[in-house]
Amino acid sequence: MRLLSAILLGLAASLAAAIGCSPTSSFGGQREDRAGWVYVRLEGSPHDIGFQHGSAIAPEIDSMNKMIRVYLKESTGKDWAFYREASLKLFLPKLDRETRDELQGLSDGLKSKGYSYDLGDMIAHNAWIELAWYYVPVVQAREKKTAVVSRAPAYCSAFVATGSQTADGQVVMGHNAWIDYVIGEHWNVILDIHPRHGNRILMDAMPGFIHSGDDFAVNSAGILVTETTIAAARGFDENGLPEFMRARKAVQYSNSLDDFARIMTSGNNGGYANTWLAADTKTGEIGKLEMGLKNVIFRRSTDGAYYGSNYPEDPKLIAEDCDGDPTKGSNCCTDRKVRWAKLMEQTKGKVDAELGKTLLADHHDEVRGIDGACGSTICGHLEVETRPGFLQPAWPYAGAAPAGAAQAKVVTTALARNMSFWARMGHPCGEPFYAAPFLKTHPEFGWQKPFLGDLPGQPWTLFAAR
Questions:
Q1: Is residue 226 situated within a structural domain?
Q2: What is d(CA 103, CA 303) in angstroms, rounded to the nearest whole number?
Q3: pTM higher than 0.85 for the full model?
Q4: Are 322 and 150 in contact (CB under 8 A)?
Protein backbone atom coordinates (compact mmCIF):
# COMPACT_ATOMS: atom_id res chain seq x y z
CA MET A 1 0.00 0.00 0.00
CA ARG A 2 2.83 2.41 0.87
CA LEU A 3 4.57 1.58 -2.42
CA LEU A 4 1.35 2.17 -4.36
CA SER A 5 0.79 5.52 -2.58
CA ALA A 6 4.34 6.59 -3.39
CA ILE A 7 3.88 5.64 -7.06
CA LEU A 8 0.59 7.55 -7.29
CA LEU A 9 2.07 10.61 -5.58
CA GLY A 10 5.01 10.52 -7.98
CA LEU A 11 2.68 10.28 -10.97
CA ALA A 12 0.61 13.22 -9.68
CA ALA A 13 3.72 15.34 -9.23
CA SER A 14 4.96 14.44 -12.72
CA LEU A 15 1.59 15.31 -14.26
CA ALA A 16 1.44 18.60 -12.37
CA ALA A 17 4.94 19.51 -13.54
CA ALA A 18 4.07 18.57 -17.12
CA ILE A 19 1.10 20.95 -17.21
CA GLY A 20 2.92 23.76 -15.43
CA CYS A 21 1.16 23.40 -12.07
CA SER A 22 2.41 22.69 -8.59
CA PRO A 23 1.48 19.63 -6.54
CA THR A 24 0.09 20.54 -3.12
CA SER A 25 0.72 18.66 0.06
CA SER A 26 -2.06 17.01 2.04
CA PHE A 27 -2.20 20.13 4.23
CA GLY A 28 -1.29 23.05 1.94
CA GLY A 29 -4.08 25.06 0.38
CA GLN A 30 -6.59 24.41 3.16
CA ARG A 31 -9.05 27.26 3.76
CA GLU A 32 -11.61 28.00 6.43
CA ASP A 33 -14.09 30.89 6.58
CA ARG A 34 -14.66 32.30 10.07
CA ALA A 35 -16.29 35.51 11.31
CA GLY A 36 -15.57 37.46 8.15
CA TRP A 37 -12.03 36.11 7.76
CA VAL A 38 -10.61 33.59 5.32
CA TYR A 39 -7.93 31.45 6.95
CA VAL A 40 -5.55 29.71 4.50
CA ARG A 41 -2.80 27.24 5.38
CA LEU A 42 0.14 27.16 2.94
CA GLU A 43 3.31 25.08 2.95
CA GLY A 44 6.20 23.84 0.86
CA SER A 45 8.39 25.49 -1.75
CA PRO A 46 7.79 29.13 -2.75
CA HIS A 47 5.97 27.98 -5.90
CA ASP A 48 3.89 25.50 -3.88
CA ILE A 49 2.92 28.24 -1.43
CA GLY A 50 1.94 30.61 -4.23
CA PHE A 51 0.00 27.93 -6.12
CA GLN A 52 -1.91 26.86 -3.02
CA HIS A 53 -2.68 30.49 -2.22
CA GLY A 54 -3.86 31.31 -5.74
CA SER A 55 -6.04 28.22 -6.09
CA ALA A 56 -7.52 28.23 -2.56
CA ILE A 57 -8.91 31.77 -2.69
CA ALA A 58 -8.98 32.52 -6.43
CA PRO A 59 -12.41 34.24 -6.38
CA GLU A 60 -11.32 36.54 -3.55
CA ILE A 61 -8.09 37.48 -5.34
CA ASP A 62 -10.00 38.19 -8.55
CA SER A 63 -12.58 40.32 -6.71
CA MET A 64 -9.91 42.33 -4.93
CA ASN A 65 -7.93 42.88 -8.13
CA LYS A 66 -10.97 44.10 -10.07
CA MET A 67 -11.72 46.58 -7.29
CA ILE A 68 -8.16 47.87 -7.00
CA ARG A 69 -7.92 48.52 -10.74
CA VAL A 70 -10.89 50.89 -10.55
CA TYR A 71 -9.68 52.40 -7.25
CA LEU A 72 -6.25 53.16 -8.70
CA LYS A 73 -7.69 54.73 -11.84
CA GLU A 74 -10.06 56.90 -9.78
CA SER A 75 -7.43 57.90 -7.22
CA THR A 76 -4.28 58.33 -9.30
CA GLY A 77 -5.47 58.64 -12.90
CA LYS A 78 -3.22 55.71 -13.86
CA ASP A 79 -4.64 52.50 -15.31
CA TRP A 80 -3.61 48.91 -14.65
CA ALA A 81 -1.31 48.89 -17.68
CA PHE A 82 0.75 51.64 -16.02
CA TYR A 83 1.10 49.62 -12.79
CA ARG A 84 2.01 46.44 -14.67
CA GLU A 85 4.63 48.28 -16.72
CA ALA A 86 6.09 49.97 -13.64
CA SER A 87 6.22 46.63 -11.80
CA LEU A 88 7.98 44.86 -14.66
CA LYS A 89 10.44 47.73 -15.12
CA LEU A 90 11.20 48.61 -11.49
CA PHE A 91 10.73 45.36 -9.61
CA LEU A 92 10.91 42.23 -11.77
CA PRO A 93 14.72 42.41 -12.26
CA LYS A 94 15.17 42.85 -8.48
CA LEU A 95 13.02 40.00 -7.23
CA ASP A 96 14.94 37.20 -5.56
CA ARG A 97 14.21 33.65 -6.67
CA GLU A 98 11.90 32.82 -3.76
CA THR A 99 9.72 35.91 -4.28
CA ARG A 100 9.51 35.41 -8.03
CA ASP A 101 8.64 31.73 -7.67
CA GLU A 102 5.88 32.46 -5.16
CA LEU A 103 4.39 35.16 -7.38
CA GLN A 104 4.57 32.82 -10.37
CA GLY A 105 2.88 30.17 -8.23
CA LEU A 106 0.07 32.65 -7.49
CA SER A 107 -0.44 33.17 -11.21
CA ASP A 108 -0.41 29.42 -11.88
CA GLY A 109 -2.83 28.73 -9.04
CA LEU A 110 -5.26 31.35 -10.35
CA LYS A 111 -5.02 29.92 -13.87
CA SER A 112 -5.80 26.46 -12.51
CA LYS A 113 -9.15 27.90 -11.40
CA GLY A 114 -9.85 29.65 -14.69
CA TYR A 115 -8.56 33.16 -13.87
CA SER A 116 -6.09 34.74 -16.29
CA TYR A 117 -3.38 36.56 -14.32
CA ASP A 118 0.30 36.51 -15.22
CA LEU A 119 3.48 37.29 -13.28
CA GLY A 120 3.29 41.01 -14.12
CA ASP A 121 -0.24 41.17 -12.70
CA MET A 122 0.84 39.49 -9.47
CA ILE A 123 3.81 41.84 -8.98
CA ALA A 124 1.58 44.89 -9.51
CA HIS A 125 -1.07 43.31 -7.26
CA ASN A 126 1.48 43.14 -4.42
CA ALA A 127 3.18 46.47 -5.20
CA TRP A 128 0.20 48.77 -5.69
CA ILE A 129 0.58 50.51 -2.31
CA GLU A 130 4.18 51.63 -2.82
CA LEU A 131 3.56 52.45 -6.47
CA ALA A 132 0.32 54.44 -6.04
CA TRP A 133 1.24 56.38 -2.92
CA TYR A 134 5.02 56.84 -3.38
CA TYR A 135 6.13 56.23 -6.99
CA VAL A 136 3.21 57.92 -8.79
CA PRO A 137 3.84 61.31 -7.08
CA VAL A 138 7.42 61.17 -8.39
CA VAL A 139 6.17 60.38 -11.90
CA GLN A 140 3.59 63.16 -11.77
CA ALA A 141 6.14 65.69 -10.55
CA ARG A 142 8.43 64.64 -13.41
CA GLU A 143 5.61 64.99 -15.94
CA LYS A 144 4.50 68.40 -14.65
CA LYS A 145 8.01 69.60 -13.78
CA THR A 146 6.91 70.44 -10.26
CA ALA A 147 7.91 69.41 -6.75
CA VAL A 148 6.83 66.00 -5.45
CA VAL A 149 3.56 66.19 -3.51
CA SER A 150 3.03 63.48 -0.90
CA ARG A 151 0.20 60.99 -1.29
CA ALA A 152 1.13 59.06 1.84
CA PRO A 153 -2.00 58.23 3.84
CA ALA A 154 -2.58 58.84 7.54
CA TYR A 155 -3.82 55.32 8.23
CA CYS A 156 -3.73 52.87 11.18
CA SER A 157 -3.30 52.88 14.97
CA ALA A 158 -0.98 50.50 16.83
CA PHE A 159 0.90 49.83 20.05
CA VAL A 160 3.46 47.44 21.51
CA ALA A 161 4.07 47.20 25.26
CA THR A 162 6.33 45.26 27.60
CA GLY A 163 7.76 45.17 31.13
CA SER A 164 6.03 47.43 33.64
CA GLN A 165 3.39 48.45 31.09
CA THR A 166 1.82 44.99 30.85
CA ALA A 167 -0.01 42.80 33.32
CA ASP A 168 2.51 39.94 33.19
CA GLY A 169 5.64 41.87 32.21
CA GLN A 170 5.66 40.26 28.79
CA VAL A 171 4.85 41.63 25.34
CA VAL A 172 1.43 42.75 24.11
CA MET A 173 0.92 44.16 20.59
CA GLY A 174 -2.18 45.49 18.86
CA HIS A 175 -3.08 47.10 15.53
CA ASN A 176 -6.18 48.35 13.78
CA ALA A 177 -6.07 48.89 10.03
CA TRP A 178 -7.46 52.23 8.86
CA ILE A 179 -8.23 52.17 5.17
CA ASP A 180 -10.98 53.00 2.70
CA TYR A 181 -13.74 50.50 3.44
CA VAL A 182 -13.86 49.46 -0.22
CA ILE A 183 -10.31 48.18 0.33
CA GLY A 184 -10.62 47.22 4.00
CA GLU A 185 -13.43 44.76 3.41
CA HIS A 186 -10.88 42.76 1.35
CA TRP A 187 -8.22 42.85 4.08
CA ASN A 188 -9.71 39.72 5.55
CA VAL A 189 -7.23 36.89 4.93
CA ILE A 190 -5.22 35.08 7.60
CA LEU A 191 -2.19 33.38 6.01
CA ASP A 192 -0.57 30.49 7.88
CA ILE A 193 2.65 29.94 5.91
CA HIS A 194 5.03 27.04 6.59
CA PRO A 195 7.94 27.60 4.16
CA ARG A 196 10.82 25.25 3.52
CA HIS A 197 13.29 27.92 4.61
CA GLY A 198 13.08 30.52 7.34
CA ASN A 199 10.42 30.88 10.00
CA ARG A 200 6.79 29.92 9.96
CA ILE A 201 4.45 32.93 9.64
CA LEU A 202 0.94 33.78 10.79
CA MET A 203 -0.24 37.13 9.42
CA ASP A 204 -3.21 39.01 8.06
CA ALA A 205 -3.22 40.04 4.39
CA MET A 206 -5.26 41.00 1.36
CA PRO A 207 -6.11 38.15 -1.03
CA GLY A 208 -3.09 37.52 -3.24
CA PHE A 209 -0.58 39.39 -1.05
CA ILE A 210 2.62 37.52 -0.22
CA HIS A 211 3.22 40.12 2.51
CA SER A 212 0.75 41.37 5.11
CA GLY A 213 0.33 44.85 3.63
CA ASP A 214 -1.18 46.45 6.72
CA ASP A 215 1.56 44.52 8.49
CA PHE A 216 0.60 42.40 11.43
CA ALA A 217 2.63 39.21 11.68
CA VAL A 218 3.95 36.61 14.12
CA ASN A 219 6.79 34.24 13.28
CA SER A 220 7.97 31.00 14.86
CA ALA A 221 11.11 32.69 16.22
CA GLY A 222 8.91 34.81 18.48
CA ILE A 223 9.21 38.02 16.45
CA LEU A 224 6.11 40.25 16.28
CA VAL A 225 5.70 42.99 13.68
CA THR A 226 3.23 45.76 12.93
CA GLU A 227 3.29 49.40 11.67
CA THR A 228 1.51 52.65 10.94
CA THR A 229 2.24 54.82 7.91
CA ILE A 230 4.15 58.10 8.18
CA ALA A 231 1.77 60.88 7.13
CA ALA A 232 3.04 63.22 4.40
CA ALA A 233 6.09 61.04 3.62
CA ARG A 234 7.51 61.66 0.15
CA GLY A 235 10.26 60.30 -2.05
CA PHE A 236 10.90 57.08 -3.92
CA ASP A 237 14.18 55.51 -5.01
CA GLU A 238 13.60 53.71 -8.31
CA ASN A 239 16.83 51.75 -7.76
CA GLY A 240 15.72 50.33 -4.41
CA LEU A 241 14.20 46.97 -3.59
CA PRO A 242 10.40 46.62 -3.47
CA GLU A 243 8.96 47.21 -0.02
CA PHE A 244 6.58 44.26 -0.27
CA MET A 245 9.52 41.88 -0.79
CA ARG A 246 11.55 43.35 2.10
CA ALA A 247 8.52 43.22 4.41
CA ARG A 248 7.93 39.53 3.66
CA LYS A 249 11.62 38.66 4.02
CA ALA A 250 11.86 40.54 7.32
CA VAL A 251 9.02 38.48 8.78
CA GLN A 252 10.19 35.14 7.38
CA TYR A 253 13.90 35.43 8.17
CA SER A 254 14.11 37.54 11.33
CA ASN A 255 15.20 35.85 14.54
CA SER A 256 15.88 39.12 16.37
CA LEU A 257 15.05 42.82 16.24
CA ASP A 258 18.45 43.43 14.64
CA ASP A 259 17.55 41.02 11.85
CA PHE A 260 14.25 42.81 11.29
CA ALA A 261 15.85 46.26 11.08
CA ARG A 262 18.63 45.02 8.81
CA ILE A 263 16.33 43.31 6.30
CA MET A 264 13.81 46.16 6.20
CA THR A 265 16.44 48.86 5.64
CA SER A 266 18.59 46.99 3.09
CA GLY A 267 17.65 48.40 -0.31
CA ASN A 268 15.12 50.85 1.20
CA ASN A 269 13.27 52.50 -1.70
CA GLY A 270 11.14 54.86 0.41
CA GLY A 271 8.01 52.99 -0.65
CA TYR A 272 5.35 52.59 2.04
CA ALA A 273 7.24 54.72 4.56
CA ASN A 274 6.20 53.43 7.98
CA THR A 275 6.87 53.60 11.67
CA TRP A 276 7.41 49.91 12.36
CA LEU A 277 6.72 48.46 15.81
CA ALA A 278 8.36 45.13 16.58
CA ALA A 279 9.03 42.82 19.50
CA ASP A 280 11.17 39.83 20.38
CA THR A 281 9.11 37.69 22.75
CA LYS A 282 12.24 35.66 23.67
CA THR A 283 13.79 38.70 25.37
CA GLY A 284 10.77 40.95 25.99
CA GLU A 285 12.45 43.72 23.99
CA ILE A 286 10.37 46.04 21.81
CA GLY A 287 11.50 48.30 18.97
CA LYS A 288 10.33 51.30 16.94
CA LEU A 289 11.81 51.64 13.46
CA GLU A 290 10.92 54.99 11.88
CA MET A 291 11.69 54.64 8.17
CA GLY A 292 11.68 57.48 5.67
CA LEU A 293 13.63 57.43 2.43
CA LYS A 294 16.58 59.48 3.70
CA ASN A 295 16.33 58.94 7.44
CA VAL A 296 15.94 55.78 9.50
CA ILE A 297 15.72 55.87 13.31
CA PHE A 298 15.64 52.71 15.42
CA ARG A 299 14.68 52.85 19.10
CA ARG A 300 14.41 49.85 21.43
CA SER A 301 13.51 49.15 25.03
CA THR A 302 12.81 46.36 27.51
CA ASP A 303 10.27 48.42 29.44
CA GLY A 304 7.31 50.62 28.55
CA ALA A 305 5.41 51.10 25.31
CA TYR A 306 5.72 52.42 21.77
CA TYR A 307 2.64 53.47 19.83
CA GLY A 308 1.84 54.92 16.45
CA SER A 309 -0.91 56.83 14.67
CA ASN A 310 0.88 58.05 11.53
CA TYR A 311 2.79 60.97 13.04
CA PRO A 312 6.54 61.23 12.34
CA GLU A 313 8.77 61.97 15.35
CA ASP A 314 12.37 62.60 14.35
CA PRO A 315 12.89 66.30 13.44
CA LYS A 316 15.42 65.50 10.71
CA LEU A 317 13.08 62.94 9.16
CA ILE A 318 10.22 65.44 9.25
CA ALA A 319 12.37 68.08 7.55
CA GLU A 320 13.90 65.84 4.88
CA ASP A 321 11.34 63.08 4.26
CA CYS A 322 7.96 64.77 4.74
CA ASP A 323 5.88 67.21 2.73
CA GLY A 324 5.57 69.88 5.42
CA ASP A 325 5.27 69.12 9.13
CA PRO A 326 2.27 66.87 9.85
CA THR A 327 2.93 67.11 13.61
CA LYS A 328 1.81 70.75 13.78
CA GLY A 329 -1.73 71.58 14.79
CA SER A 330 -4.72 69.35 15.41
CA ASN A 331 -5.22 66.51 12.95
CA CYS A 332 -6.15 62.86 13.05
CA CYS A 333 -2.51 61.82 13.61
CA THR A 334 -1.51 64.17 16.43
CA ASP A 335 -4.89 63.90 18.17
CA ARG A 336 -4.56 60.12 18.35
CA LYS A 337 -1.00 60.50 19.63
CA VAL A 338 -2.35 62.53 22.56
CA ARG A 339 -4.93 59.84 23.23
CA TRP A 340 -2.37 57.03 23.08
CA ALA A 341 -0.19 58.83 25.65
CA LYS A 342 -3.14 59.20 28.00
CA LEU A 343 -4.25 55.60 27.57
CA MET A 344 -0.78 54.24 28.28
CA GLU A 345 -0.59 56.38 31.41
CA GLN A 346 -3.98 55.11 32.60
CA THR A 347 -3.30 51.44 31.84
CA LYS A 348 0.27 51.12 33.11
CA GLY A 349 0.78 47.64 34.54
CA LYS A 350 -2.58 46.39 33.26
CA VAL A 351 -2.20 45.78 29.51
CA ASP A 352 -3.11 42.28 28.37
CA ALA A 353 -4.92 40.82 25.35
CA GLU A 354 -8.40 41.81 26.56
CA LEU A 355 -7.37 45.34 27.42
CA GLY A 356 -5.57 45.55 24.08
CA LYS A 357 -8.87 44.86 22.32
CA THR A 358 -10.47 47.66 24.34
CA LEU A 359 -7.70 50.12 23.49
CA LEU A 360 -8.09 49.47 19.76
CA ALA A 361 -11.85 50.12 20.06
CA ASP A 362 -11.45 53.43 21.94
CA HIS A 363 -13.84 56.25 20.90
CA HIS A 364 -12.67 59.15 23.06
CA ASP A 365 -11.34 62.35 21.46
CA GLU A 366 -8.75 63.37 24.06
CA VAL A 367 -8.07 66.77 22.50
CA ARG A 368 -11.70 67.95 22.67
CA GLY A 369 -12.90 65.81 25.55
CA ILE A 370 -15.69 64.32 23.42
CA ASP A 371 -16.85 60.70 23.14
CA GLY A 372 -17.80 59.35 19.73
CA ALA A 373 -15.86 57.75 16.89
CA CYS A 374 -14.18 60.12 14.43
CA GLY A 375 -10.79 60.71 12.84
CA SER A 376 -9.32 61.72 16.21
CA THR A 377 -10.13 58.46 17.98
CA ILE A 378 -8.10 55.25 18.06
CA CYS A 379 -10.96 53.35 16.43
CA GLY A 380 -11.42 55.79 13.56
CA HIS A 381 -14.65 56.23 11.62
CA LEU A 382 -14.46 58.59 8.64
CA GLU A 383 -17.81 58.12 6.99
CA VAL A 384 -17.37 61.88 6.24
CA GLU A 385 -16.07 63.97 9.14
CA THR A 386 -18.32 66.77 10.40
CA ARG A 387 -16.97 67.49 13.89
CA PRO A 388 -16.52 71.27 14.41
CA GLY A 389 -12.90 72.29 14.72
CA PHE A 390 -11.53 69.00 13.43
CA LEU A 391 -8.78 69.54 10.88
CA GLN A 392 -8.76 66.47 8.68
CA PRO A 393 -5.70 66.07 6.42
CA ALA A 394 -6.25 66.91 2.77
CA TRP A 395 -6.75 63.33 1.58
CA PRO A 396 -5.03 63.39 -1.82
CA TYR A 397 -6.84 60.49 -3.47
CA ALA A 398 -10.41 59.71 -4.46
CA GLY A 399 -11.15 57.21 -1.72
CA ALA A 400 -11.17 59.71 1.15
CA ALA A 401 -14.37 58.24 2.56
CA PRO A 402 -15.93 56.07 3.65
CA ALA A 403 -12.87 54.98 5.58
CA GLY A 404 -11.68 54.10 9.05
CA ALA A 405 -10.59 51.17 11.18
CA ALA A 406 -11.78 48.18 9.15
CA GLN A 407 -10.26 45.38 11.24
CA ALA A 408 -7.99 44.76 14.25
CA LYS A 409 -5.58 42.23 15.74
CA VAL A 410 -3.98 41.58 19.16
CA VAL A 411 -1.15 39.24 20.19
CA THR A 412 0.75 38.52 23.39
CA THR A 413 3.92 36.59 24.21
CA ALA A 414 1.83 33.60 25.32
CA LEU A 415 -0.25 33.65 22.14
CA ALA A 416 2.85 34.04 19.97
CA ARG A 417 4.44 30.96 21.52
CA ASN A 418 1.46 29.03 20.16
CA MET A 419 1.61 30.86 16.81
CA SER A 420 -1.78 32.50 17.38
CA PHE A 421 -3.47 35.89 17.68
CA TRP A 422 -6.90 37.48 18.11
CA ALA A 423 -8.50 39.19 15.11
CA ARG A 424 -11.73 41.10 14.53
CA MET A 425 -13.09 41.90 11.08
CA GLY A 426 -14.91 45.22 10.78
CA HIS A 427 -14.69 48.12 13.21
CA PRO A 428 -12.73 47.12 16.35
CA CYS A 429 -15.63 48.53 18.39
CA GLY A 430 -18.06 46.14 16.68
CA GLU A 431 -20.28 48.86 15.20
CA PRO A 432 -21.47 47.94 11.68
CA PHE A 433 -21.12 49.97 8.50
CA TYR A 434 -23.78 49.60 5.83
CA ALA A 435 -22.92 50.55 2.26
CA ALA A 436 -26.36 51.21 0.75
CA PRO A 437 -27.48 54.09 3.02
CA PHE A 438 -24.04 55.68 2.80
CA LEU A 439 -24.02 55.62 -1.00
CA LYS A 440 -27.57 56.97 -1.09
CA THR A 441 -26.51 59.94 1.04
CA HIS A 442 -23.15 60.42 -0.71
CA PRO A 443 -23.61 59.92 -4.47
CA GLU A 444 -20.13 61.35 -5.06
CA PHE A 445 -18.80 57.91 -4.13
CA GLY A 446 -21.00 56.17 -6.67
CA TRP A 447 -17.96 54.72 -8.42
CA GLN A 448 -17.56 52.41 -5.40
CA LYS A 449 -21.08 50.95 -5.71
CA PRO A 450 -20.05 47.79 -7.63
CA PHE A 451 -17.45 46.98 -4.97
CA LEU A 452 -18.40 48.52 -1.61
CA GLY A 453 -19.95 46.01 0.76
CA ASP A 454 -21.17 46.10 4.36
CA LEU A 455 -18.83 45.75 7.33
CA PRO A 456 -21.09 43.97 9.82
CA GLY A 457 -20.13 43.73 13.47
CA GLN A 458 -18.06 40.57 13.94
CA PRO A 459 -16.73 38.88 17.09
CA TRP A 460 -13.11 38.70 18.13
CA THR A 461 -11.81 35.36 16.84
CA LEU A 462 -8.70 33.41 17.78
CA PHE A 463 -6.58 32.14 14.88
CA ALA A 464 -3.72 29.69 15.32
CA ALA A 465 -1.25 28.03 12.96
CA ARG A 466 -2.33 24.44 12.32
A1: yes
A2: 40
A3: yes
A4: yes
